[in-house]
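Need a sequence for this fold. Nothing fancy.
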């Protein structure tokens, strides 16, 4: 080997090992941090535990979210991309010093302009301490702006300076909300990878006034709450009427993008839960997790789940990426189909014998004769406490009765 070639090889190896050394951040320090989002003109703090360069965990009240973190070779290894599980969203940023990083959260399932700035700062208050005298209150809630009005049921638990709870609507819940009470002002929100919500309002003994709801980088609504322990929404099992109508042929696409038809004969002999969902939808994730436990616990070959996905945009290749990520993260292999874009009108066209589909998720339960037994609209997840337990108990019981027929 001549001297010139030897020098080239040596220089190449030096650069290679230098680049690998730069894969480790000079600034990342293990500890407890706050992930602080600038949501329009407000700041939301979400607890973040950093164990190492590659091991990060978000604490979204009762939810623990493990991130997949990749260190980039640029900027001395202080740039990073943290992928959120299930959803096609990322935290992209760089460390400015040992205890400060800046960047933005980006939702890849939306257009390229959908991102929100954040900073990561050191914190020592990420844990939620047990509360000796919690007080839970319910409110009839109205969200409103110039173009939209939504009725909701709010349930909050307040203990000292902490507030936790959620809003429930007839299309689902706002999942794990948490934050602080400062004087009579409430400030709380959530970040689960897809939802980025901030709320504030003024609380007196009976009502909440001057409420503001911010979502992502655009959405803003006013809201108010009236104390009402007896307020309730419609039964999610009665919103869409079915009346034992026979399921019709479904025109779908399989995971390879090939058009397929599922005929009524497919449903005979089985109890089938048709799961209308989107991989971008956290409420759909809650419903899908419940259905996983349902099929595992009942362990009966006469019960099956048929996911039909409705995804953002029109590009099938992006639908495919989102679906693979969703099911790989769940570590569950199952057959799924695509019903079209993320539109409730598109979903409704698949089932012309039903009244309109108004929510993702929607669960259509089909009996062994191929007839629609009933439809469950939306889904109340674990953050709704007793509402979640009551609803999944009803679904389990009714499916078990169909299986016995």
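Here you go.
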């Amino acid at each position: 080997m001549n001297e010139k070639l030897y020098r080239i090889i040596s220089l190449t190896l030096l650069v290679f090992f230098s680049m690998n050394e730069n894969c480790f951040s000079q600034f990342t320090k293990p500890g407890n941090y706050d992930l602080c989002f600038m949501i329009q003109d407000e700041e939301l703090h979400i607890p973040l535990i950093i164990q190492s360069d590659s091991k990060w965990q978000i604490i979204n009240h009762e939810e623990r979210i493990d991130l997949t973190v990749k260190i980039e070779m640029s900027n001395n290894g202080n740039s990073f991309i943290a992928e959120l599980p299930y959803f096609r969203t990322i935290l992209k940023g760089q460390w400015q010093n040992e205890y400060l990083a800046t960047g933005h959260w980006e939702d890849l399932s939306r257009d390229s302009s959908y991102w929100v700035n954040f900073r990561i700062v050191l914190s020592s208050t990420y844990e939620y301490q047990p509360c000796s005298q919690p007080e839970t209150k319910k409110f009839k809630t109205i969200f409103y702006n110039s173009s939209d009005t939504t009725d909701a049921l709010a349930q909050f638990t307040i203990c000292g300076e902490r507030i936790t709870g959620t809003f429930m609507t007839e299309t689902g819940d706002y999942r794990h909300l948490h934050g602080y009470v400062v004087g009579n002002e409430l400030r709380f929100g959530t970040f689960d990878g897809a939802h980025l919500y901030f709320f504030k309002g003024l609380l007196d003994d009976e009502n909440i006034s001057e409420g503001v709801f911010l979502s992502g980088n655009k959405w803003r609504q006013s809201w108010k709450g009236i104390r009402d322990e007896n307020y309730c929404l419609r039964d999610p099992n009665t919103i869409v009427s079915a009346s034992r109508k026979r399921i019709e042929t479904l025109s779908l696409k399989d995971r390879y993008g090939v058009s397929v038809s599922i005929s009524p004969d497919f449903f005979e002999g089985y109890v089938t839960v048709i799961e209308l969902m989107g991989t971008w939808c956290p409420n759909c994730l809650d419903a899908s997790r419940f259905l996983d436990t349902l099929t595992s616990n009942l362990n009966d070959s006469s019960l099956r789940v048929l996911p039909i996905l409705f995804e953002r945009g029109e590009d099938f290749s992006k639908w495919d990426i989102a679906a693979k990520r969703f099911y790989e993260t769940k570590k569950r292999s199952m057959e799924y189909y695509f019903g079209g874009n993320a539109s409730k009108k598109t979903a409704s066209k698949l089932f012309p014998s039903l009244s309109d589909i108004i929510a993702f998720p929607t669960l259509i339960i089909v009996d062994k004769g191929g007839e629609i037994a009933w439809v469950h609209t939306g889904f109340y997840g674990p953050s709704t406490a007793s509402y979640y337990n009551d609803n999944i108990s009803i679904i389990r019981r009714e499916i078990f009765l169909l299986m016995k027929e």
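For context: Residues 5-22 have pLDDT under 50 and may be disordered.
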